[in-house]
Amino acid sequence: MKQAAFLVDGRIAVLENGQAKLLDCITANKYREREREIKQRKDWKQSGTGAMFTGAYDFSDGLESPQLDISGLSMGIDGKLAFALNYEGGGGIHFKALDDEQNETPIFVDLKTSFFDCAIHPNGNIAVSCSKNYLNRHIGFLTVDAPHLQVLTDGECVDANPSWSLKDENVLYYDSSGMAYGARGQVFGPRCVYKLNIKTGELDEVLADDKFDFLSPFENTMGNLYFIRRPYKSAKNKMSASDYAKAPGKIMRAFGGWLDFKTRTCTGESLNTSGANPAKGNQKTPQQIFIEENLLEAEKNLRKNAASGDKNAGIIPRSWELAVIYADGTQKVLQSSVMSYCISPDGEIFSNGKYVVHGEKAVKANVAAKLISF
Question: Coil, helix or strand for 10?
């Protein structure tokens, strides 16, 4: 099996010669150590009888540790990996050398922005799913040489899985779910795939269906578009007609974001004069919720997949399919039970929630996400 990488439990793993190896995140380790040192310096104020009398006593007893999460992974530049790291409300994009685990370089850090999926183009352009208020996620843009974050999309939505086209360097694909607030609280619509030209601002809805989620788009050099398709049927997140009516138009919002991006580029100033939404909450994306609900039925799905003849049965339902639309318009389903995938020069590599599979070879790697090939 060719070399590939993926995320598992918020950590980076490299797949090489049939073995999966976890990589240490030096940046995360340094952050944890710095937090421990700060806590130790403050301990004298938060311990002892005097601290209890003044109300400054720390009853956590040092049991809590900083929440760090690697939530995005991409092939970087010069053979390096790129990853998004989040910590306590902020985050950043970092490069990591594969031949030297100690070699990590920050590309961009923002203590008020969380970063999720990321995609690096060989020309140095970076697209990332980011959030400033924990409620919405939008597509941001920066470059390796000029790391200044500019948000391209807007609106009440969750934009995720950006991917640069290998056919046109100005084209960016991503998936998005509209979000609204009704009597049932926060609800999400089906995920749709969008195509954004960062040079012209043209935005097209490529894949959309009320009955399906479309996510993780990728266009190769021949113009073939790969994606994951799965049923949109989660009752907890399904949007009603009134919810759709309340949801803002994502295309107009995204165009406004692109216009602001161009204004920043030319004038250095933003069209948006309003501050960030201060509302906070640990909201999960439809993908996270859907995966968690299916993991509760992992054994059931595993038995079904095995009964269907899967050689390396996984826990993801067979209804989660890896499909492709070829340049001539024809469509084909390539794999079933797909949680994450990447396209290598010699075929598809995908995760079914239990194994990472490439052709006839499979390596056990539970819930492997954000697969990339080298």
Answer: coil
Q: Which residue has the tokens 């499909």?
A: 323
Query: Is the separation of the CB atoms in 277 and 130 below 8 Å?
Result: no
Give CA–CA dist 142/148, Å, rounded. 5
Residues 6+ apart with CB under 8 A from 105: 80, 94, 95, 96
Residue 54: CB atoms within 10 Å: 10
- As given in the structure block, the two tokens for residue 9 are 């439990």
CA 369 to chain centre: 9
Task: Report the C-alpha gap between 7 and 260 in whole angstroms.
Answer: 33
**AA letter at 105:** T
**Does residue 2 register a pLDDT over 60?**
no
Q: Residues 295-351: pLDDT tens digits?
A: 557 888 889 999 998 889 999 999 999 999 999 999 999 999 999 999 988 889 999
Neighbours of 230 (CB within 10 A): 21
Indicate if the pLDDT at residue 46 is higher than 80.
Answer: no
Contact (Cβ atoms closer than 8 angstroms) between residue 289 and residue 296: no
